[in-house]
Write a structure and sequence with these properties.
Helices cover 76% and strands 0% of the residues. It has helices spanning 4-22, 26-43, 47-60, 66-82, 88-98, 103-118, 122-131, 139-155, 159-169, 177-190, 194-203, 214-224, 228-240, 244-260, 264-277, 283-295, 299-307, 315-330, 334-345, 351-368, 374-386, 393-406, 410-418, 425-444, 448-460, 466-482, 486-497, 507-521, 525-538, 545-560, 564-577, 582-595, 599-612, 619-632, 636-649, 655-670, 673-678. α8 runs parallel beside α10, α10 runs antiparallel to α11 (194-203) and α16 (283-295) packs antiparallel against α17.
């Protein structure tokens, strides 16, 4: 402000000089000299001495020249301000209160505002700046006014008023424009008006007063705006020249920017520095470190950070458990992986994670479990129940099928397979297998029709497993045979025998045997004999029950074709094996001797049967036929013994009535008509 007291001083001196020519009292000259002396001291910034002189004028001449006294009071108070006297604020404030209409009061308000500002009494200073008529200030004083007024508002967190004040001078040329622009930009930064703040801070990059601080704000703003490419351009250079107290924060900004750009290898360098510099890192920071190491396939490094998140049940916790489980899995710790996946699946903050975690838990349970796989089955069924429309539902059913296969629960395995919408080659392979074994279960339960349905389902999958296809053909033929559908069975047996992989199957030889039986049951004895011969040739040297049975059937075929000699040779081979119905073979051979009229051989054979096989089902047959043979060789007494034995031991036998008839005939031939009639 232009100091108006100089003007008034000159005017006063002129008035007093003119007056002295007329009348110059001593006291008036003393005031003039005292005021002039005080003013000169003030101009020379000898504020202590000046203040004393001004005080003398005020005290000694209190009733004279009130205008001069007013000026003396003003400068007395002003000297106190420049001297930083403790009572300076009081005197200046008192002057304003006593002379509200004085032009000097406006100057006093301004000086008071500056004084309070300088003594950092910003709240009071702000009030006085509000009372200053800034239009009366010089240009440079106006810049000072707006800055200091704005700063007082800034200190009070009145950012709206501060912004208005700083705005007035931030773009003009003055000593205060730089600081005003800084605080204006800082307020914009605090209020997240980042573009405004960024523009201001960029203008201050070359300002010597602010070039050391604004780059940090620029970095923070770019980071807040997610301009990660720009952050990684300027951040590393800023980090090199940063003070230790800022290096951690800068490392965080740069590291996280690389992280957001998915450049995890570079992010690692800065984030590790950030963790090293930080005394305490947040859960979010720990998760970020864990995720970064996971992406870099440094799973062992990730585990401590993810474990360090604690057991808090929130979205971050669920994500960390899921990621931790995967790290355990990739480091070979499947037990911990399963437990951790299960924990993640139990949280519902992210349904996708819950779903995938549950499936992974079920799969690991399947891999780790031992028979009967009940826990794995429960896990997969739970997944299917909770997520019936999951895109992974087919995979869940697939594993459920495998679990059922391990428990040999083919019924439920088949039901699960039917619910799989898209059956890839692996599923079709399982489908072929499950349907086949389910068919075998039904076959063993004598549910032949149902077993045939299962065998057809298995065969419909194609030759995925040729060995299994061959076996399925065989057992389908068996089911048809059991259903007495012999011709259909013959077709399938033939298909089996020529199918790839059949020859190596245990059922291959049996198929010949069963084919023979089909022809036998169809009374096609020629073909039956041919297939029985094939079978005994395949198992030549065997002493099995089926070999003996095959010889019996070969004997039957020859017997039916009246080739009794051939029949007897086959029956004898069966007898020699002693493994399948030797009493039948012995009876048939003996009977064949009788047809060839070799009665004594017949009697010897039947006698051997009765002696060697006391519990044979053919005892009544043997007794009856031996009795008849005794009749043929005129040994009626022996014949009667056999016939009476039948009457005594086999009252329910079909031979009972025949024995009675033959006894009567023997008596009749002996002439014992009475005995014959008594029967």
């Amino acid at each position: 402000m232009i100091r108006v007291w100089v003007f008034f001083l000159l005017l006063l001196q002129l008035m007093m000089s003119n007056f002295s020519f007329a009348q110059r009292p001593y006291s008036l000259l003393t005031i003039e000299e005292a005021y002039k002396n005080a003013s000169e001291l003030f101009e020379k910034e000898k504020f202590g001495a000046a203040q004393k002189e001004f005080q003398l004028i005020v005290d000694q001449f209190s009733d004279m020249n009130s205008d001069l006294k007013t000026r003396a009071e003003y400068y007395h108070a002003l000297c106190g301000i420049y001297l930083f006297n403790k009572d300076a604020e009081y005197h200046l404030d008192r002057f304003v209160g006593m002379h509200p209409e004085s032009m000097l009061s406006r100057d006093a308000v301004w000086e008071m505002a500056l004084f309070l500002y300088q003594t950092k009494k910003y709240r009071k200073a702000g009030g006085y700046f509000e009372r200053v008529d800034h239009n009366m200030l010089a240009k440079e004083e106006q810049a000072e006014y707006y800055f200091k007024k704005g700063y007082c508002s800034f200190v009070k967190n009145d950012y709206e008023e501060a912004t208005l004040a700083f705005y007035e001078i931030k773009d003009i040329q003055s000593d205060y424009s730089g600081p005003a622009l800084y605080y204006y930009s800082y307020i914009a930064y605090k209020q997240e008006n980042f573009e405004t703040a960024l523009l201001g801070f960029r203008r201050l990059e070359d300002d010597v007063n602010f070039s050391g601080i604004v780059p940090y704000y620029i970095l923070q703003i770019l980071y807040s705006q997610k301009k990660y490419e720009e952050v990684v351009k300027i951040g590393p250079g800023l980090l090199k020249n940063s003070i230790p107290g800022r290096s951690g924060e800068i490392s965080k900004f740069v590291g996280d920017s690389y992280y957001q750009l998915t450049n995890y290898s570079k992010a690692q360098t800065y984030l590790e520095l950030y963790v090293e510099k930080s005394k305490l890192i947040s859960r979010e920071d720990k998760f970020q470190m864990g995720f970064m190491y996971h992406q870099l396939k440094k799973y062992s490094n990730a585990i401590p950070f993810l474990e360090g998140l604690g057991g808090k049940k929130d979205l971050l916790g669920q994500n960390s458990y899921y990621l931790l489980a995967d790290c355990f899995l990739r480091t070979g710790n499947k037990q911990k992986a399963a437990i951790t996946f299960f924990t993640a699946s139990g949280m519902d903050f992210d349904s996708d994670i819950s779903e995938d975690a549950l499936l992974n838990y079920a799969k690991l349970t399947y891999e780790l479990a031992f028979s009967p796989f009940n826990e794995a089955i429960r896990a997969f069924r739970k997944f299917i129940e909770i997520y019936p429309y999951s895109q992974q539902i087919d995979e869940a059913y697939h594993y459920l099928v495998l679990a059922y296969l391990n428990t040999r629960n083919y019924k439920f395995a088949y039901e699960s397979l039917n619910k799989i919408q898209e059956k890839n080659s692996e599923i079709k392979k399982a489908y072929q297998r499950v349907a086949f074994y389910r068919g075998l279960e039904l076959y063993k339960d004598l549910k032949f029709e149902e077993s045939l349905d299962m065998f057809d389902v298995s065969l419909a999958q194609g030759n995925i497993d040729t060995r299994l296809t061959a076996r399925c053909l065989y057992w389908k033929a068996e089911a048809l045979y059991r259903n007495k559908e012999f011709r259909e069975a013959l077709t399938i047996y033939e298909e089996f025998l020529i199918s790839p992989g059949a020859y190596s199957q245990n059922e291959f030889n049996l198929a010949h045997y069963n084919t023979a039986y089909c022809f036998f049951n169809l009374k096609d004895y020629a073909n039956a004999s041919r297939w029985y011969r094939k079978y005994v040739t395949l198992i030549e040297g065997s002493k099995s029950r089926l070999m003996a049975d095959s010889y019996n059937r070969l004997g039957d075929c020859a017997f039916i074709s009246t080739d009794y000699s051939l029949a007897m040779s086959f029956y004898q081979k069966s007898i020699d094996l002693k493994s399948s119905d030797p009493d039948y073979a012995l009876f048939q051979k003996s009977f064949s001797h009788g047809l060839k009229k070799n009665y004594f051989d017949k009697i010897d054979g039947l006698t051997k049967l009765l002696n060697d096989f006391p519990k044979s089902n053919y005892r009544d047959d043997a007794l009856f036929e031996r009795g008849r043979s005794y009749v043929q060789v005129n040994k009626s007494g022996r014949a009667l013994e056999d016939f009476f034995n039948i009457l005594e031991s086999f009252k329910n036998s079909s031979y009972y009535s025949k024995a009675l008839l033959n006894i009567g005939l023997v008596y009749y031939n002996q002439g014992s008509n009475a005995k014959a009639i008594d029967l």
